[in-house]
Every structure is written in C-alpha cells, then in structure tokens.
Amino acid sequence: MGGRYLAGPRSRWDPGAALGWLLRQPTAWVLVGAPIAFSELHWGEAVSSWATLITASATALLTTHQRRWSPAARLRRAMVECGLIGVDQRGRAVAPRVRLSARWLGRNVTLRWRMPPGVTLRDVLQRQESLEARCECSLRVWEEPGVLVTEMLRHRIPEHLSYQEMYSSPRPPGRFLIGLGRGRRGALWVDLDSCPHLLVGGMTGGGKSVFLRQALTFLCREHGPEDLQLALIDLKGGVELAHFSYLPHSVYPLADSLLAAAETLERVRQELDRRLREVREAASLERAAAPPSCPRLLVVVDEVAELTCRDLGDDRAARAAQQAASGRLGEIARLGRSVGVHLVCCTQRPDAEAVPGQLKANLQGTVAFRVGAAVNSYILLDSDRAALLPPHPGRAIWQEETMEEFQAVDCSPEESRQLLLARWSGSA
Description:
The chain is α/β, with parallel strands linked by helices. It has 15 helices and 15 strands. The strands form three sheets. Strands 8-7-15-14-13-9-12-11-10 form a nine-stranded mixed beta sheet, with helices on one face. The radius of gyration is 29 Å and the shape is elongated.
C-alpha cells in the first residue's frame, strides 16, 4: 500500500489534501476538461469527438492504474516503506527505479531495478519477508551486472489440490518428473535427472506419507518396470508402502524391519557397484558413458531415523545392521546419481542425529512440511520457514536453489490403489 496508508494515529479528514490528490489524477482532468471542450462545439462535432474522449479516458485510467497499483508500483512502494532508499549528492532521498519493461509469464512478472547508491542485494534479502507480506507474493531476488532482478510469483496457493487437478495440467519437459504441488509460481515439478535425491521431513500428520504416495503412484503409472525399479523400505510398520510392493516395479521384498532394511540396502549397493563397473568398462572402450538399457532404481526410505539414530540397547546384531544400513545409505546418496540410482528419504524427526550432515549434503532437494521447532526447520532448510507454515495439512516448502511455499498433491490410499490397479491389474 502507499505511504499514506502506513499504520499510525488516524487523523481527521483534510479537504485540502483530498483536493490535491484529486488534481494529481489524470482521469479527473479528462472528466473536467471534456464538458468544457464540448461546450465550444456544435452537437455534430461533439458526437464525433466521443471516440477521442473514450480513448483519452482509457489512457488516463490505465496510466493511473500503472502508476498506483501495478506489481512494479506496489513493489516500489514496499521497498520505500522498508527503507530501501538512498541519498544523492544534494541530500535528497532516492528510491529504486524500474529499468526497461516488465516481463510477464502468466501472473508472474520479472522486473529489473536500478537501486539507489548504498543499497545492496544483502539489504533487499534482509527485508524480503516484509516485501512479500506487503505485495502478497513470493519473491526471487538476484543480481545481474548493473541491475537488481526481482521475480514476483503471484499465483494463489490453493487450500487443497487433488491428484487429477495436478497431473491433468501441462507438464514441463523432462523424462523422470514428479509433481510437487502448486505454489505462487504455479505448478511445481521436480525432474530426478537434475535433482536425483530428495529429503522429505516434517511433523506427524503434516503430509509426508501422502506426498510419497502420490509421487510413487504417478511414477509407477507413467513408467513400466523396464524403465523404473523400486526398492522400498518402510520402517513404520510396512503400512504406507505395502501396496506398491505388489507392483512389477518392486524388485526387492518390502523391508519393514531394521535387519531387512540393511539387507535391501546391501543388495542395492551391489547393484550400484555393478552399474559403476559397466560404466567404467564402457568408458575404457570409448562407448556411451552409461548403459542405455539400464532402468532407474528408486530407493525409498520411510522414517530414515530408524536407520541412523534409533536406540537399540544391547542388541549387537541390530546395532551392526543399523551401522551397515546407515553407511550404505550415505554411499548410495554419494554415488548413485551417475548410474540412475535415486534416493528419497522421509523422516518425522528432522534433527542432526536423524539426518547426518554427510547424508544431508547429498540430498539436493528438500520438501519440508510443518515442523514444531525452528531448530528442526534449520536442519531441513537452513531457515526457520518450515516452523512458520500454517497448520494446514499438505502445506510445505520446496528447496533446491531457492525456497517456495506450495500445497502438496492429495492422494488417498484408496485412490492410489484404484489408479495402480487400473494400470497394472494384469501384472501385479
């Protein structure tokens, strides 16, 4: 909003200020000038001048709107209100100025700014949350030579997003896509070719299992077992991922215990070694860098804390299996990208023990649902934004290069089973 709407004591109505504001509006001058001009014309000449009047009025209204309420004007006012102003050599205040024209993509708009002397990118980033609140948008901010670039993401975040709504919409190019949901940018997708490993975290009931269910449902409907293989580890009783284990994509038994998880991860490591060996042999023979017939192998771990930090007491066998599984998990995250082995780790306990730094460093993309404490949000995002999310199931933050809030796709267990049955009823 403009500076005159800043919070403060409410003053009495000032007729002089109101008249001054009215005289500054182009539309007012058109409406006042038209009767004066028409009074000097005959009736026929006045009628023929209606087109000129309408054009002038439309131009004046457009100019007023552009000056007052366009995204560029709102963001400029927000910058001034947040103190992003400088002082020139004469001691006058200098506000940011838009350079060139805005670039629109749907409701989103990219603007380039010439910032006042002394105002840096760091200053803008420190006030980013205030700017977003004033403009009712999400902002991406970066620097290019001589200018500051802002991308205003202005789509509405829905309260609920069904599976059909998400996956019936146009998709970006990519061979191994997963739909995340809808945010300020619009539909959000991740391509596992460019972001091979994901970390999904948040408190119980936030939407982690639903997100995992809809992503696996889409992948298994889009890709056959010749293109996609699954290694499923469900350490929450085997309930959430059980129906995926009956698909032809599942090449290993569903692991629902610590010992079974360690065995599955050992077999995945052996497959990883085999693929790496084939790549080395192909490179030595100057052939393609990867075997063309090699299917993607997606390793899904639901509740990774069971593999990394669960207290097992004096059970030596279980502790040895836990240590081996944790080591294999890190190796898969570190080496799997080059040979088509992908990893998705979910946890309802996003702390430093459950997600060690070495593992977190290799999980390039993060889906953070609401957490109970800022320290858990910092483990996931290096920010407290996941702790500030509204208590709305399915609301999350996606972080790869930047952070974006979105509403995740909803898919019930019954809907997932029906979709998979319709696609693979003869193969399960």
